[in-house]
Design a protein that fits this description.
alpha/beta; Rossmann fold; 2 domains; 7 strands; about 35% helix; globular
Length: about 240
């Protein structure tokens, strides 16, 4: 999906150096590599196994798909502490992030670092879904059926509901309480509006912007929550460094 979106946004990545912020297992980067970039570096706070590229390559191979040429030298995984990117200024032709920014604790800092490491004539593409105020923003709607519980309920209540769900579905306990609960605790609670304000404040110009709108359960929105923040469930934005 990432390669298709970049192409749709008219981004030519042939021969380019690319940074993927919040790369996970770099599965998307394998697909992007087939489009001809020089190198892709994946950046993440998680300590993946040293053979993460080999494991992802095996997953692709097992699915019967062809691996991109020379992926061993054209892909690199870099772990960082979550604050300063470990790269010099003006290092990358393209910086992108896909479904990661809702988990980044300091969004303005991350955007500032992206602004620093992208070249003056470079490009930035960021996709975020879902934003926290939206119906799907908790990432837990499969397990808790109260609309917008994450906007009004304390963490202790959420954990109790998850524990109850796991009692009825013990096979999911490790995933829900071991993984999804931790994911929920990392969500930064940004809205699309707040994110765009940060984008402009750190020195980007918006070249293209698309909003993902969701109208689920609008009659259940807590009274102190802005309806616009709930409806704007996701963002795709294509940025240029301001001159």
């Amino acid at each position: 999906q990432v390669p298709n979106e970049l192409i749709r946004f008219c981004v030519d990545i042939t021969g380019k150096g690319i940074l993927d912020v919040g790369c996970g297992d770099m599965l998307s980067d394998f697909g992007l590599l087939a489009r001809g970039p020089r190198k892709i570096i994946g950046l993440d706070v998680h300590r993946h196994p040293k053979d993460i590229l080999g494991r992802t390559a095996a997953t692709i191979r097992d699915a019967g798909l062809e691996l991109p040429a020379a992926y061993e030298t054209r892909l690199e995984y870099v772990q960082y502490e979550g604050n300063v990117f470990p790269f010099p200024d003006n290092s990358f032709d393209l910086v992108y992030s896909w479904s990661a920014f809702e988990h980044i604790p300091d969004v303005p800092k991350a955007l500032s670092e992206i602004r620093r490491v992208v070249k003056p004539d470079g490009r930035v593409f960021i996709q975020v879904y879902p934003w926290f105020p939206s119906f799907w923003g908790s990432h837990l709607t499969d397990y808790i059926d109260e609309p917008f519980f994450h906007l009004s309920r304390p963490d202790a209540w959420v954990h109790e509901r998850l524990t109850e769900y796991c009692a009825a579905h013990p096979e999911k306990r490790d995933f829900i309480l071991g993984h999804m609960w931790g994911e929920y605790r990392t969500l930064n609670k940004h809205s699309a509006k707040r994110f765009i304000s940060s984008v402009l404040a750190v020195g980007f110009c918006i070249d293209k912007l698309e909003s993902i709108l969701r109208l689920d359960y609008l009659d259940k929105i807590p009274p102190d929550t802005a309806k616009a923040d709930v409806i704007s469930a996701g963002t795709l934005v294509y940025l240029l460094p301001a001159k």
